[in-house]
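Table 4 source record.
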Amino acid sequence: MDTYFYCQNCDAKITVDQLALLNEGKCPECGSHEGYSTMSKKEGDPFLTTTIINDTELLSKALGEES
């Protein structure tokens, strides 16, 4: 199974082998130096969809109490 990396500027997908061969870390598609991530920009920011529940809320829901 290949691991893919995505350009943080244009979202171009490259393999680990391609990443190792990059000239000065520039994206082969757009020439950006913004870097790479294993998560595509199309997948969205996971922190935008994360729900944070504090201990009081969690216990209330577990015990069936209304808050």
